[in-house]
Amino acid sequence: MDRAESYRTAPDKFILHDDAIKGGTAIIRGTRMTVYPVLGRIDHGEKVDDVLGDNLDIPSEAIEAAVTYARTHPLVERRGGKPWSDTA
Hints:
Distance between the termini: 53 Å
Radius of gyration: 16 Å
Shape: globular
Strand order of the largest sheet: 1-2
CATH topology: Arc Repressor Mutant, subunit A
Order of helices and strands: HEEHHH
Helix content: 40-55%
CATH architecture: Orthogonal Bundle
């Protein structure tokens, strides 16, 4: 139950969407760090402490919130190429 409550409140406390910062991509509040590279570091084997070591002013709860947010709100990739050309 504690984990569910943490999941519910953490995004409001630690995650920010601001169109003036990184085009509105979710960032850790008080930084310009988007949540997706944080998830990438964790998914590639780094520990939360490793990320914290590079960002001493960010609380561990913010890193955990960023990872949870990025996992539950995956990026939608844009279609590449030239959509106006007929490749068929």
